[in-house]
Amino acid sequence: MTEPTVTPLPQGLPLDAWHRAHNARMVAFAGYDMPVQYEGIIAEHLWTRSHAGLFDVSHMGQLLFHGPNLDRALETLLPGDLVSLKDGRLRYSMLLGEDGGIIDDLMATRRGEHFYLVVNGATKAGDIEQFAQRLPRACALDHMKQQALLALQGPEAAAALEALVPGVSALSFMQAGRFDWQAKPLWISRSGYTGEDGFEISVAARNVVALADALVADERVRPIGLGARDSLRLEAGLPLYGHDLDGATTPVMAGLTFAIGKRRRAEGGFAGALRILGEIENGPIVKRVGLAVEGRQPVREGARILDGEGIELGRITSGGHSPSLGRPIAMGYVASALAEPGNRLTIEQRGKIFAAEVTPMPFVPHRYHRQSGAPA
Amino acid sequence: MSLYFTGEHEWIRVEGDVATIGISDHAQQALGDIVFAQVPEQGRSVNKGDEAAVVESVKAASDVYAPIAGEVIEGNPALADDPALINRDPEGEGWFFKMTLLDASELDGLMDEAAYREWVKTL
To answer: Do the Cβ atoms of B36 and A42 come within 8 Å?
Structure first.
């Protein structure tokens, strides 16, 4: 007889009833009941690319760090240049293990004397443990469980949010600030996970229903589920932790070397620096690549990438139908020698062979709101 | 003409000794947006329960099983270029394949339409 496994019941997020009232199909994800779709993944995906989509990402971890010399302390675990990060600016970074493997990917914002990190929902408990164990004792973090997180993404996101929160459209990509809506404080960053212009809005859980209602009252805004969030980020070439990134993957293998600042490359001093700096210099053994798959049938996570002799070269880590392109796209890892765009590969899935070609990412161009001349 | 349903949400429309197979409206709703369908080749012999066709939505791949034994007469040629036809008209134009009906007794254990619609409400 096997031991009974105790699966904790999915927790409800602050917008749980709101999603159900908007006819969401709910699924368990990262320990929460989350909306996977409302009217349909393809329609929601295309709506976000042409108008504005509202995503509930309240499952993600919002962490506020306190303490002396936080930038230096966090730089021991994150390879990004945080010392030079200006107030109200954010950077994409990663929490690294001592072997240079990626424990999580995240957004880090300097917020006055604090740092505000948004980490993945499925990994937040482990991240908090890592920070507690590996940061100096004087550094403390507050897990902001009372805050919900919304994302508003798409070419009409700025106009729709500006109508509720005047001034917000002055933010440029990777900038953030404190705003008020009906005398309620919001922390808003111009960032997202779709490749579109857009915002992420941290709001007190008790106010999130009213804010979500106000946003979807604008005819340009529709609620979008996790299904379209996944297809949008795949088209944007953005990796998903637990699929395209894991503890055995380094930032260099994952093609995320841009997140390692120039000074950090020169100085090192972050977890796994020896290995990572060596990979930057000599090239990683394997690389994350984008793949255009021939035909109409999607290849998905776990499908095998083969050479002409049938030898396994790597695996697909994300794949699916691209609603914007109307064809299958995928990401996976292959030996660096085979990672050049244009290189042709064979993929095997459930006994069926597919032809694919290495393609630069993003598959669909990013349309971030960068101010000309502003530093990245 | 008689219409039957399986517990795997396939329908079988029997006209003489020809059976047309598809997936139910409930199944297409559960799958969501369908982006690919592969139907069996003409002349293929299938046993009851064999994987006969593949249907993939944005989210996942599913097999369609032969609900009865027989020989495939025709796969629906419209599905290759327009798999979303299965979402739009699952129990009509979005049929998957036609096959010969070898043994009519295999239909005995299947649900009729009223029983299937009632059962689906309980899921």
So the answer is: no
Q: Residue type for A370, please?
A: R
Mutation site, B59, B79, B82, B85, interface A, largest A CB count within 10 A? B59
Cβ–Cβ < 8 Å for B39, B47: no
Yes or no, beta carbons of A227 and B32 under 8 Å apart: yes
Q: Report the SS3 class of residue A226.
A: helix
A→B interface, C-beta within 8 Å: 36-37, 40-43, 227, 231, 296-298, 300, 320-321, 323, 350
What digits encode the pLDDT tens for the residues A100-147?
999 999 999 999 999 999 999 999 999 999 999 999 999 999 999 999
Q: Is B83–A231 a contact, with Cβ atoms under 8 angstroms apart?
A: no
Q: How far does the CA of residue A209 sit from the closest CA of chain B (Å)?
A: 27
- Closest CB to A41 among B38, B58, B83: B58
Which segment of A30-34, A96-100, A143-147, A359-363 scores lowest on mean pLDDT? A30-34
Task: Give the helix/strand (H/E) hosting A125.
Answer: helix A124-134
Complex prediction ipTM: 0.89
Where do the domains of chain B lie, and which CATH numbers do they carry?
A: 2-121 (2.40.50.100)
Distance from C-alpha of A361 to C-alpha of A339, rounded to nearest angstrom: 12
Give residue A375's pLDDT.
Answer: 46
Average pLDDT over residues B14-41: 96
In the block, tokens 């857009």 appear at: A198
Task: Answer for the pair A102, A254: CB distance below 8 angstroms, yes or no.
Answer: yes
* CB-CB under 8 Å, B56 with A298: yes
Q: Quick one: tokens of A255? A: 């093609």
Question: Which residues, 6 or more positions from B13, have their beta carbon under 8 angstroms from its beta carbon?
Answer: B1, B2, B3, B19, B20, B22, B95
**Domains along chain A with CATH numbers:** 16-57+146-235 (3.30.1360.120), 61-143 (3.30.70.1400), 285-359 (2.40.30.110)
